[in-house]
# Entry
Amino acid sequence: MFKALKRWWKYWGAKVNASFNEKADPKIQLEQAITEAQDQHRRLKEQAANVIANQKQAEMRLNRSMAEYEKLNGNARQAVLMADEATKSGDEKKVAEYTQAAEAFANRLISVEREIEETKTMVLQSSQASEQAKTAVQQNASALQKKLAERQKLLSQLDQAKMQEEMNKAMATLSETVGEDVPTFEEVRDKIELRFARAKGAQELTGESVEARMLEVEQAAMNTEASARLAQIRSELGLAPAATGTQGDELLKQAEQLQQAEGAAKPQPTGGGDHNQPGT
# Structure
């Protein structure tokens, strides 16, 4: 039962985390990551500073021990010399006192020597730790600078991605709405081309019909009659025919035929004096 609850809790935790990452703003998350990296670098520098401080403190302790060692060594030598002079002068009391002082300096000297060896070991270890800390700080600083430089690139890419997403969304919305409320350009073009094709087809059919030929014949007849009338007017005025060539000869011939037809259709005059009139 406990295992099932544990698995259920982990499942819902992963689900909530995934939902949060999906809805979270990448720009804010990027700033959080950069801030965390800066805090981590700051903590690393503080730790390195503590390691370097321990090294410096061990070096100062070593220097003090070395100075004390030199001083004790000189005092011990001086006590031995003074004890030797007291021995030569026969002063047993001073000999004992100087000898006792020399032994005290010697004991202290031995203790300081041990401290110096321990401090040397400590200084060596702290120096190694200090170098490692410095290297770690330098490496982390380089990594942080790289992240800071990459942040600008990522922010630019994020802005471009948002702009492209908005463009894609706008184009998708445009493609969905165009054609519903208003026709698309392709639909209007197809409609116009279809109407033009129908008109051309109807024109071709009309040009091949009998009615079109009849209209053509009637128009030709009207043109011929007009030409004949113009020829008659020119003839009455005593002017030369205006038309030349084959078409002009044909028009003149048709005009003459019309004149002859009109003359034949007119009634002939009759004489009144030769005929006997009926009586009244």
Q: What stands out?
A: Residues 10-177 form a domain with the Helix Hairpins fold (CATH 1.10.287.1700). The first helix runs from residue 2 to 23. The helical segments are 2-23, 26-89, 92-177, 185-207, 210-236, 245-265.
